[in-house]
Amino acid sequence: MQFYKLTLVFAAIGVLTGCASQLIDERLGSDRVSVADKNQVAHCESKGKATVSVLSKVGFITRSTEAVESNLLQLGRNSAVDAHADTIVNGGTLVYGERTFDLYKCRP
User: Which InterPro entries does the record cross-reference, listed alphabetically (predicted)?
Assistant: First the structure.
């Protein structure tokens, strides 16, 4: 009985870890949001900042860096769409699973 419960717990963690990336929706227009460096947005209009966060651990399992980064980038792009921006700049963070993006309107 104990082995069955342990197997079930590990299976659930595996499913949740694998599905966590699929839970981030892609907003209409987010595929047209560019990622730029700070020196590339001097001529752009600032639309503010967005701080986004994603699940970085499921139980005691840490999600892969690639999955977390991909989710953060998608949330940054979604935030740009919400703010009527078309470009984001990675503002960095000190916390794994969290990121601040600067939002800009660069295209007419």
Answer: DUF4156
Q: Which residues contact 80 (CB under 8 A, 6 or more apart)?
A: 30, 33, 47, 50, 86, 87, 88, 101, 103
Please check whether the domain covering 2-105 is classified as CATH 3.30.110. Answer: yes
Token digits of residue 104: 């800009």
Mean pLDDT score of the chain, rounded to an integer?
86
14 has a pLDDT exceeding 90: no
Residue 6 in contact with residue 59, Cβ under 8 Å?
Answer: no
Q: In the numeric block, which tokens belong to residue 32?
A: 């047209």
